Design the sequence.
């Protein structure tokens, strides 16, 4: 039995005594409609509901950047965004970077520059970098460093990551005409 109430952005109802909201969003280009717990974070929605395990959880407090995804063109730390806030949004996760089984230029350059070791932080770095290059195809070192300052890595060091983003930007401009 459900007790429905329309909100401005999403539909709220009660199912078996539990509050649920219905959200609609696009995830990596696919339309998704789900009934969820209104307190669920976007991070847990992506991992637990959508089974997109590329988005990582570390601090859970918006401090490390491991959970970064792109929401409506902007990099966000998904652990501190509620899934209901993504109602109507377009979300891109690290799984959305490769096309037809081929890694993106950005991913290729992270590999070529040895910009990862354990890889736990890498999806977050990739998504922060992707959002940067989407808005600024030719960023300066300072701009890259500034944007990536919210992403923490315990093992690689930041120089190879900076190199990877710079060479990816160069290749994208040359190969994709950006
Ligand atoms: S897990 Fe989200 S910022 Fe650290
Ligand atoms: S590569 Fe291990 S935390 Fe960054």
Sequence:
């Amino acid at each position: 039995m459900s007790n429905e109430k329309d909100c401005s952005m999403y539909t709220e109802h009660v199912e078996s005594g539990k509050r649920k909201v219905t959200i609609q969003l696009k995830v990596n280009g696919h339309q998704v409609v789900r009934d969820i717990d209104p307190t669920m974070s976007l991070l847990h929605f992506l991992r637990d509901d959508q089974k997109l395990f590329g988005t990582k959880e570390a601090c859970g407090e918006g401090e490390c950047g491991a959970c970064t995804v792109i929401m409506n063109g902007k990099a966000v730390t998904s652990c501190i965004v509620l899934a209901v806030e993504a109602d109507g949004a377009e979300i891109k996760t690290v799984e959305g970077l490769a096309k037809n089984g081929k890694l993106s230029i950005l991913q290729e350059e992270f590999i070529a520059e040895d910009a990862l070791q354990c890889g736990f932080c890498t999806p977050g770095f990739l998504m922060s970098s992707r959002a940067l290059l989407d808005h600024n195809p030719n960023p300066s070192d300072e701009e890259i460093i500034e944007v990536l300052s919210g992403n923490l890595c315990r093992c690689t060091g930041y120089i190879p990551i900076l190199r990877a983003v710079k060479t990816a930007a160069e290749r994208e401009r040359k190969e994709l005409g950006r």
